[in-house]
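Hi there, hope your week has been kind to you so far. No rush at all, and the record is pasted right below.
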Amino acid sequence: MAKEIPVYLFTGFLESGKTRTIQETLSDREFNAGERTLLLVCEFGEEEYDTDSFEGTEVFIEEIDSPEMLSQKYLSSLEKKYKADRVLIEYNGMWTLDTLYNSIPKNWLIYQQLFFVDCATFENYNNNMRSLVVDKLTNCELVVFNRPSESVNKEEFHKIVRGVTRRANICYEYADGTLEYDNEEDPLPFDVDAPVIEIGDRDYALWFRDFAEDINKYIGKTVKFKGIMGVPKKIKPGCAICGRHVMTCCIDDLEFKGLVCTDIPPMFDLKNRMWAIVTACIKREFHELYGKPGPVLHVLQIEASDAPEQEVATFF
């Protein structure tokens, strides 16, 4: 089995700060301690790499002149040629990310995806090339707005980002190198005051965290979500646990987050590890699986379902 190759993906449009950030990253001893690093450069701006300032000498740069060059066979050949331990990609902002996602070898795993923005040109790109902006925002973990002026409309920038993703962190990097993080509180992506609180597949982790932090807000309300049914061996008929595996930041902290369900109809073909859509009223009461009072879902409706596109629930 081929070894896993971590990929650090730097996206953004021309002159957005990708090259400078990669230069600083590879010049940092804490990041670059001699690992054999393949740097794929898919876009060429005014700034060039100063390889003499890189920590160590094991950084190998290959230029990708067109999206047609991207293929699993070619990228695998570069990995083998340089015996790479990891890959950094400076991606061309005018190419869609699906082109890359469909071309990277199966053993290449994207560890981090960042989107860099020139504050002076961002609104122009968003107004005229909205699909490319959405393409870069959808899966990124951090949006870096570079060179903000005093007149920059941070509220509008925040709104544009949150219109695509609620999971990306946002920061502003000033000319002197100082960083300012956007800590504006975002509304929850579901309506807690609706007759039925519907939790989207991508929002389970956010909902469970909010639920755990303020259970009283949900007691007596009806919720609908998709989850995995867990059926303990010694449990009364009509009972199960429904939830999702949640990952906060990495695979090491993967944990099942579920709630006790009761009143599951006898005619429902309940099976362990099946996916189901549950609509239930939340009450606080004693249950043997908790061994104390806790939130119990009284099932009003349940139906078998396919697994969601992303089975592990995350905050990003």
